[in-house]
Amino acid sequence: MCFREEIFSMYCCRLSPAQLVDENVQNLKLDCPSNPKLNLRCKILCLYNGLAVIRIIDTFDRDFSTVLLWNPSTRESMVLPPTKFSDQPIEYCFGLGYDSISGEYKILRIYQDFNPFCRDRAKLSNEILTLTSGYCWRRIVEYPRRGICSLVWAMEFLAFMHATFHWIGISSNHFMVVSFSISNEVYGEMPLSEEILSLLMPGHCSIGVCVLGGMLCVHSSIFVLHDKTMFFKFWVMKEYGVEESWMPLLTVDSSCFVDVKPKYIPDGEVLYLFRALELSGSAFWTRNAGPFRLWPQCDNIGSVYAYTESLISPKSLTY
Q1: What pTM, to 2 d.p., does this model score?
Q2: In the chain, which end has fewer C-beta atoms inside a 10 angstrom radius, N or C?
Q3: pLDDT tens per residue, range 40-92
Q4: Residue 137 to residues 127, 129, 133, 134, 262, Cα–Cα distance (Å)
Q5: Which residues contact 24 (CB under 8 A, 6 or more apart)?
Q6: Contacts 24+ apart (CB under 8 A), 144-147
């Protein structure tokens, strides 16, 4: 998604090595899934199985906001119902997943309820939308163990694998991965390794979890107090659910970067999105191959997501 002079455009570029060829950027442009006459701002809230949950906002009327389920490959979309319980201006994170037991797609919305500067902020109810059962948002049960807060502001969307959503939780300055089963709606916890925990300090780092190459990946930017520098670290969980299987993936010094996020693993190589001090927007980089030059050039890349194409019709999921 590229931003220029209040105009938001979306592009799609294939990442398969056999299909990485230079193309005219206009051939890669996607149609916005809404009325093209409006001056729209689009934000992808989550992606899964070729489907995207996307918010459309009119830049001239901030009260106009619509959330759609969209297939970028077929350009088909449908309007989702508004959330029922809270629309406060607060950080939240969406996740989209498929429940193989019920055969339903579900969307989970988790609110950020951790704030190191305001510990007494009231907790908001998290919500779930099942696309074929009543087709409306409903509250989910609160986390059974008191004192666990959700920390999602550094995540693009909830990590989904093994029929379970994942995000970062914190309790008494102790970080962990929180899980939520999509089928039986049961919470769980996954401990982080001692190496990861030793580097994290609330208020001086940002941390998130994503799925990378079929593995859980923890990414963090860490501010070093004594010399006021920042670096980025990434770990992957080689064996799902096993604490001892957390392995370091990459460390990046921030002498030239202001943000680094892992995006995709093509043929064993990791593709990173980075923001550099000398760039107005973002660019791509791989550890071994260097810059990823075959991406469409844009004055300002706002956000980027990797997804697998599918022919699933959003409208067919509500019957």
Answers
A1: 0.83
A2: C
A3: 678 889 999 999 999 887 766 666 678 899 998 888 989 999 876 655 556 78
A4: 6, 5, 10, 9, 31
A5: none
A6: 144/187, 145/171, 147/171, 147/172
